[in-house]
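Reviewer 2 asked us to include a model.

Predict the structure of this chain.
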Amino acid sequence: MSLSRARKAFNLEPVEGGFALFELIAHPGMLEAASGISLYEFPRQSHAEAYKNLGVDFVLVLPDSASEFPDEQDTVELDDHGSRSARWGVGSGSVWASTLPFKSVEEVLEYDPFSCAAGTYPYCQDEDPHKSVDEIAAAQQRGIDAQRQYAADHFLLPGGTIFVLFHYFITTFGYNLFCDAALCHPVEFEKLLDRFAELSYKFSEAWAKTDIEVFIAHDDIAMNASTIFPPDWLRKHIFPRYKEILAPVQRAGQKIIYFSDGDYTAVLDDLDEVKFDGYVFEPQMDLAMMIERYGGQKAILGNVDVRVLTFGNNEDIRLEIDRCLNLGKDVPGYFLNVSGSIPQNVPLENLQFYFEDIKRRRSG
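Predicted model (structure tokens):
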């Protein structure tokens, strides 16, 4: 079963077929075609059956809702706080605030992230941080158990966060105010960093009390060619706090997988000091280098280029899978993965070929 294959891969054991498969499918047409279940009527069932039928071993989440995007709109209003969602598909996408409540750097530096209730801007957490750690942990456990009812033994579901630390600030304050606060007011910003680190630590403490096996530590620190802030800044302000934030999860024995967009090659040595158990990465990073560096020592999840699936033909897609598997197949801990997610603009026939080709390789 795929659950067993995912566990073996994360434990750096050989797996049947030579590789595991990790995907985040946000493509409504693919989900419904693979599941035979209405996505909008039964979203969690549709996701689960699609992943099962496609042989995916590791799945980030089974959403319990799915909103259909109007064809004529590029974005959809989500709530009363001015948040909008990009048209990436279901269960995935980019959410940002159209109207930021912060008007000055002084407001940013004085902000206390514990001052808002769950579900109100700028929170991006599922649980109210005013609750106790045990209360949050119980809610997290209920959430993962609800998903497992549909996953059964077909694939592994993790816990985790999409905001370890750095990503909080862009989402909460916007890029300009974040840069102003962090780079022009470093002493005051240190205190704000500590407040957000305390928030993140609390959620890590809660996850450590659950029975998850894998913890996704997502924090977008990079762009196409480099980290967003200079590596030296990250080394001073972010990575030491990673160690503190993630300590409860590490003590619980949960495997921690780091996940960031872009090219974070320049800070791999620093991330290694945090002792992550694996990395999810995009095509901007060199798969051959990652396998040479970590093959058989850490989980390696990547790095099929979604642009090939979007704009290529069957031969292009086959060659892209070849590129990854020629390097990753039979390497303990390797997961084939379309980087980021599979959005709704990928041609359905290309996706169908992609998964059929993977199935053929595994059976062959």
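The radius of gyration is 20 Å. Strands lie at 20-21, 75-77, 83-86, 95-97, 159-161, 214-218, 255-259, 278-280, 299-301, 334-336. We have added this to the supplementary material.
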